[in-house]
Amino acid sequence: MLQSYETLRQTGIATVRAQIRSGGYASHTAGLGRNLLQANLAIIPQEFALDFMRFCQRNPKPCPLIGASDTGNPILFTLGQDIDIRTDVPAYNIYRNGQLVQSVTEIGDLWTDDLVAFALGCSFTFEHALIEAGFELWHIANNVTVPMYRSSLETVPAGPFRGPTVVSMRMIPEERVEEAVAISARFPLAHGSPVHVGDPAAIGISDLSAPDWGDSVPQPAGHTPVFWACGVTPQAVIQQAALPLLITHKPGHMLITDVPDTAEIPIITNKNMPR
Amino acid sequence: MLQSYETLRQTGIATVRAQIRSGGYASHTAGLGRNLLQANLAIIPQEFALDFMRFCQRNPKPCPLIGASDTGNPILFTLGQDIDIRTDVPAYNIYRNGQLVQSVTEIGDLWTDDLVAFALGCSFTFEHALIEAGFELWHIANNVTVPMYRSSLETVPAGPFRGPTVVSMRMIPEERVEEAVAISARFPLAHGSPVHVGDPAAIGISDLSAPDWGDSVPQPAGHTPVFWACGVTPQAVIQQAALPLLITHKPGHMLITDVPDTAEIPIITNKNMPR
Q: Which Gene3D superfamilies match (chains A, B) (predicted)?
């Protein structure tokens, strides 16, 4: 039976995950599994995995790596008691040679012995902290997608992985910019502190009202645009590498982990761990 | 000409690195290149590199990865303007099949196209911060090596890499334990907050006065033993994996990077970066 977002918001992670796993829920995860770390997903052939891990290590702000599966093992045992990456994300995008070919709600038939699944931190974590501190985030209050831009900040390349840093933008009251910076800096697993504050042109963005992804937001007087590295970066970088196969989460449809979003490290103690 | 430690302590990183590179200095690096991140080193064949990166991701406290070279490229371009890992560490240990076979001051003749160099954060960084905050660290004040112990805390395995977490211990005044925890937590690239505070038996250590590595230290009244994850862990874990070749720094003889030890991320902007 299809579950509604409002019903699942009231329940614990076990119920949410069971619903996602069974196909009973296939929509976005913002606000679900409260206070748990959510993650971007990238599944690629092992052949490219070492370079991708190097890419994440070299670009920790856009690509905060929080989990890496064993090759061919779909169980992400460091992120949850029971996470099967073939079924536990509400919706997936399948790319072949860099082209989106399909969106699906489970990938059991695509999983093979040579795939590696990577989980990367996402902005939900620090947005949650900003909201708790009384910041109003327009895109959330108005139920649209945060505006994202291709910046002139180049990532540090590794193997076939290279390209511009994609940034997300939030308008912050001038007098609270410093506070927003400090709050987000506490979450290195969720992009950390901003990569730029102020003039968009300084990082190659000519028109704030024309984002490359997401929706345009108002620019009220007394507010400053603040730019954070964005999880779309690794997706764009892997797409341009045109791997034979790439599986990602569908934007907004994240992996919900068992890790508290304030955890110092993204690792849980797990009795099911291979020994 | 051999340079003395006291002479190099007064000079900048360029001079220190030039002396190390030329073989003019081959001793320990504590206190050199002040305020720069120092690193543990592990060089292994590419065949094992993906599992080692997974191991570091799964065990970020003992193994805070701060740099990974391209396969076969000895230039660590994310950690410095000019770091050549074949010459820029004062002394190296060479292991074959898990056995120490030689200590050398440069590895130009051992470097091959299939090697990958990894740099991992070390405790110098948070010790420096503790000292700045007025903590007296007995092992430093008395010029001995911090006591280290094999604990009962198991690492999360990856491929051939597995084994106990090695911890280092510092006696901290009871009333300042919380402060020491908070200070070290600010340095996730240097082992972060302690893994245990108090009773050694709780993490499998039966006799504090008999460390597995380093020197025994006094246990004054009113002090609590505080245990941090230690950079010896990856070395012990790689040794037990008995790889055909492993090259590490000689203990205490670290790689000095160009990265400030308070940096949010361990990446420098580098004009020499491959594109």
A: PSTPO5379-like, PSTPO5379-like domain
- Quick: pLDDT tens for A152-161: 999 999 999 9
Q: A122-153: per-residue pLDDT in tens? A: 988 889 899 999 999 999 889 888 999 999 99
Contacts of B54 in chain A (CB under 8 A): 53, 68, 70
SS3 content of chain B, % helix, strand, coil (to 5): 25, 25, 50
Q: How far apart are CA A36 and CA A33, in angstroms?
A: 6
Structure tokens at B109: 């003749």
The answer, for B189 touching chain A at a CB cutoff of 8 Å, is no
Q: How many residues does chain B have?
A: 275
Amino acid at A244: P
What values do phi and psi take at A39, rounded to 5? -140, 145
CB contact under 8 Å between B65 and A57, yes or no, is: yes
Q: What mean pLDDT do residues B214-226 have?
A: 95
CB contact under 8 A, B192 and A60: no
Query: Are B275 and A188 an interchain contact pair (Cβ–Cβ within 8 Å)?
Result: no
pLDDT higher than threshold 70 for residue B59: yes
Residues in B closer than 8 angstroms to A193, CB to CB, are 264
Query: Above pLDDT 70, what percent of chain A?
Result: 97
Lookup result for tokens 């009231």:
A10
Q: Can you tell me the distance from the alpha carbon of B78 to that of B98, in angstroms, rounded to the nearest whole number?
A: 29
Q: Which of the residue ranges A68-72, A182-186, B24-28, B114-118 would you say has the lowest mean pLDDT?
A: B24-28
B251 band by pLDDT with thresholds 50, 70 and 90: confident
E strand spans, B97-245:
99-104, 115-121, 148-154, 164-173, 196-197, 223-229
Instruction: Quote the pLDDT of residue A34.
Output: 81
B190 φ, ψ to 5°?
-135, 50
B62 touches chain A (CB under 8 A): no
Q: In what order do the strands lie in the sheet with A223-229?
A: A148-154, A164-173, A223-229, A196-197
What domains can you pick out in chain A, each with its CATH number?
8-121+242-260 (3.40.1640.10), 124-233 (3.30.2040.10)
Contact status, residue B190 vs residue B125, Cβ threshold 8 Å? yes
Residue by residue, DSSP assigns A133-155 as TT---HHHHTT-PPPEEEEEEEP
List beta partners, residue A267.
none
Give the per-residue pLDDT at B33. Answer: 84
Q: Which is nearest to B59 in space by CA: B121, B9, B139, B149?
A: B121
Note the ipTM here: 0.94
Residue A132 has what DSSP assignment?
H
- With a cut of 50, list the residues of chain A below it in pLDDT: none
- Helix (H/G/I), strand (E/B), else coil: A227: strand
